[in-house]
Amino acid sequence: MTAYIGKNSVAPTDASPSSSFDGIANGGGFYDHTPRRAVDSDFDVYVHDYDSSAAEGTARGVTPPVFDSKNRNSSQTATGTRRTNDGSVDPDKFDRNTRCMAKALFTFTILSIAGFLTWKYGLDEPRNWEETQEGFQNIWEAAGDQWKKWDLGNFTDVLDGLSDDLFSDLMGGDPMLGDNTTINWDNDHVDSENGGLHLTLQNALDDTWQTEFETAVADWRESDALQLTTERVAVDHNCNQVDGVMVVCNANFGATGWVGINENSIMRGVIVSSVAKMNEYYLRNADFDHRRFTMCHEIGHGFGLPHTDENPHNANLGNCLDYTDNPSTNLLPGEVNMAKLRDMYLTRRLRKVEEDGTVVETTQLIRR
Ligand SMILES: [Zn+2]
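Output (structure tokens, whole complex):
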């Protein structure tokens, strides 16, 4: 986690004496170099202010004293601008007081504005202590969400590689295990007389996944029941659902026990959106076959397809919805998947109620 933040912060470019502060500021991810420089230069100004009475004198139109570092008082007395011993007004002191007040007023104004903005926008205008606490809670949760999003894109702690044994073990972590229901997309996306399921796949994957994605989409396009459109969008490690499309994404979900997952949103018994997630914890450094199988598998679930077999150790059936301990011959959709898709999206079901009340259902496969 820390390493991620470090990676994304602006690294110090010089050996600055304030580098320890710099590290903390950057570690939080809220500062870049600018504030540190501002702090330094502010400090410089501060020192300059109180040391360079010569510059002040010039600015006020007073004869500049000749600065004598060995005997400062004598040089000041020589200019005649200070008469502190006789009780009269010291113009320098008066001026410093004025400037101190101006600085205090300025600081107070800035703090007031910051306080007001926090109250209005950060806390959503709380009117009592409970609402204030609620506001802070919301800010905390928003910060947590942001952190989670950053962390999903942090690949520093992923596995170095993935063996066939671990890959097959992870099949048991598939949340779709044992759920062999076939579920269709909603009718807005289905035209059984014109190509079946018409679906857009939003490619929210980073560059490392483009080959696997393009390959899997081309393989699924072999089905006459699928009309797929792809659209490359911004990389989204958060894998947000988008209505009416299938989002495909990659992120480091950690040691979850699954290499990939598909989440279909179902309303009134049909799919309305879908997300296929590749878990980089296992797949970032995995072989191409493991990655390609997972991509084919999760996209397949996104069409509403179930597994074809859930024992990874028996012979491969030759399709990517068959669990396997060796994906090399299970990389593609198989005929069994294609037949299922035709049944789901290219058939017309007719229901007829007979006079005696019997319901007769006829299924017709539409061929163009
Ligand atoms: Zn599965």
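The longest strand covers residues 270-279.
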